[in-house]
UniProtKB/TrEMBL annotation, chain A:
InterPro entries: Heme-iron_electron_transfer (IPR051936), NarG-like_domain (IPR023234), NarG-like_sf (IPR036197)
Any one biological process term the GO annotation gives: anaerobic electron transport chain
UniProt keyword Electron transport, yes or no: yes
Entries under Pfam families matching the protein: Nitrate_red_gam
GO cellular component term of the entry, any: plasma membrane
Domain of life: Bacteria
Location in the cell: Cell membrane
Protein name: Nitrate reductase
SUPFAM superfamilies (alphabetical): Respiratory nitrate reductase 1 gamma chain
Source organism (scientific name): Candidatus Thiodictyon syntrophicum
From TrEMBL, chain B:
Pfam families: Fer4_8
Signal peptide: none
Keywords: 4Fe-4S, Electron transport, Iron, Iron-sulfur, Metal-binding, Transport
GO molecular function: 4 iron, 4 sulfur cluster binding; metal ion binding
Highest rank taxon of the organism: Bacteria
4Fe-4S ferredoxin-type domain sequence ranges: 67-96
Protein's UniProt name: Reductase
TM segment ranges: none
Amino acid sequence: MPFLTGLYAFLFYFAALVLVSGLTYKVVQYSRTPAPLRIPTTPAPTTSSGVVLRMTREVVLFESLFRANKWTWIFGWLFHFGLFLVTLRHLRYFLNPVPAVIEFIQPFGIYAGFAMVVGLVGLWARRFLVDRVRYISSPGDHLMLALLLLIAASGLLMSFLLHTDIVSVKTFFLGLYHFDLRPLPADPVLLLHIALVAVLMIIFPYSKLLHAPGLFFSPTRNQVDDSRERRLVAPWASRFERP
Amino acid sequence: MAKATFEVPVLSQYPDVPAVTPGTMAGSAPFLSKPEFQAPLGFPGELVENWQERAIEKMGELLTRYRSLRVYMDACVKCGACTDKCHYFLGTKDPKNMPVGRQDLMRKVYRRYFTLAGRLFPNLVGAQDLTREVLDEWYSYFHQCSQCRRCSVFCPYGIDTAEISMAAREIMDCIGVGQKYCNEIIAKVYRVGNNLGLPGPALVDTLEGLEEDVFDETGVRVRYPIDEVGAEILMVTPSADFFAEPHVDGLIGYGKVFHEAGVSWTFSSYASEAANFGMFIGSYENMHRLSQRIREEAIRLKVKRIVFGECGHAWRVGYSFLNTLAGPWDFLDPRYPVPQHICEFTHDLILQGRLKFDKTQNDDKVLTFHDSCNVARASRMGDTPGGQFEIPRAIIRATCNHFYDMDEETIRDRTFCCGGGGGLLTDDLIELRVKGAKPRMEALNNVMQEKGVTHMAAICAICKSQFTKVLPFYGMEMDQIVSLHQLVSNAIVLTPGADDGDEDDDDDGATDSALTPGDEDDDAAD
Ligand code: SF4
Ligand code: SF4
């Protein structure tokens, strides 16, 4: 038992470290890389507040995807929105006291798990059923879906069938904050569930999950259409300037 | 119908997405650039010895230079939303012409050399060494992208395959694998001043001829000046406008608009090219050198404003990059944006009520409008987003009685490429050009059947040249494509100058000029 607890404690410290440092590295890298020329996909907003609105529509509603393909949009949005609610719901295992909003969200969060599963199954089905999507899928894409689906399924299993001792789970995670290792229930579904979450955290900064921070740095979406009014010269391009 | 050595796609009424058929266009590649066209651009003449190492190094450099490339290499989730959006895929069925398929040609190399996962588990994430086969694939398929950005509209992360194609072409140029058509043209601009290699005296001749033609036809002296120091406006236009059909009809229209506006203006024989093929090959440095010519001429000719003619990618470079590449433009009249598009100029005059049109002059045509990609998705006109869609249409409505748009899914920011943009307008790629035009031809054909459309107007020299060539393959007539300012030119009612009457007396064509424009209009109206 202490071995398992120790192992999982180590796993989560490691996963958190990789996630935070890896993402920080990537975000710093993206923001330090110059965007020497204005390349927004037009029609684009001509003000910064317009850009904030455009980005918000992309992040919340998946506007471009909606225009592109309704099936992908439905499944993709279901999955992401479900994931969002489920993540919010899980905050209760990591926060003490639990904020009122998080309390309020609990029942929705449980059903959001089903939305996640439906979304993931739909997205995965497309990888087999649509020949174009089958063509572009690599083993990594299937593995990623399998990973997410297993996480969602094991989570739902615990919510509805094989309940686990969530009080101990919470104690374990809260203990991690103070390097105070508390025992984790040796419940196979739980152990599988959180191990897979740790794997997800570890691969995040090295995989296509980078689309999450990437969206915010995408020049075609986040640039203001003001090239006739504002002159930009990237540092590396300044050597082309006239003396 | 034009003769083809390949199968011309059959047009259908409803858009259909073809089944993926790998390899259909593997054999399509443009001619290689010869050393004499590579050198003036600053590229090695032929494939360098340590090309693989140099290519990876260049890729690393570009990844630190362009945020777009860096983010786009990472962000794709293979959702497939872009797979049916590229006209080249729709026309050729080749999955490497799906935007994501094309990006992956570079992404697999990126993963191999620049990511941990690709170094450790290449097969799992589809990473691959940069081999000779991969390089050949790059050469084929990155020259099957017209950099039209249609894919970027639909990708949930705005991934722009045009940026990736540009980067790939720059990498290939830097190891000595250049594309003949683009590089030869850029070299020609450096040597002679324009894409077509027309020397100054030829331009002067052409413009004098045009002045006479317009005078004979209208009885009004419309000027087509070149190299006039002190003119208010420098007009920069694609060199095709100087002589080819239907381009030149548009150029005639520009002159008439300036005549009615009563402004002084001039072409330049040194900056006699608005096109900037530096963009097609992704080369910032060449794009910069080409742009500088316009600055030098603006200074030498002491102009106050710069106006661009009808050219799609020239307008993108002008609108989006000129300020950065050749600015600041603080020596010009600050009341006007730099540069302005001729459509903005004409549209302003229309709004002020300063142009008179006789729309019946275009009554032999029923029109539709082709939004050119670089105008539609990479630039703007006027001061509200989407002005690039509204302004040309407003001009058509002001000059023509019969106008119908094509299907909504195929216009504005969803417009389909003509199939010849991005430096692919060369005969060695004719199969690609014909097949890539299929979605646009379908939309045109539908509106011809349903609304009786006879002509399609465009504001891009490449679109016009491409359609002229490609329409016959689909059983249509090459002159169904017209310049937007050709419509303006047909309908505009010119104001005779003070000296127009005097010159008539000693002109041989006195009988012609006795017919005043007013009389002609009345006849036509009857
Ligand atoms: S930029 Fe245009 S031509 Fe290139 S992949 Fe995208 S849609 Fe196709
Ligand atoms: S739409 Fe964007 S994220 Fe989706 S497959 Fe295409 S490039 Fe990748």
